[in-house]
Amino acid sequence: MTDFVVAIGLVLVIEGVMFAAFPGIARRAMAAMMETPEASLRTSGVVAAVAGLLIVWLVRG
Hints:
The chain is mostly helical. It has one domain. Helix content is 92%, strand content 0%. The model has no long low-confidence stretch (mean pLDDT 93).
């Protein structure tokens, strides 16, 4: 459970740095996301989740 909380914290750090360092790019990315079809967003989310799972498995395995 500790690792999960640390992972959530790291996600927040990375997102916070992105918004703090590159607010214009982050805003354009959000606007582009709003125009992207749900199916594409869902597919991207599944691919990202699987890639993250594989990375964790390789590092921790």
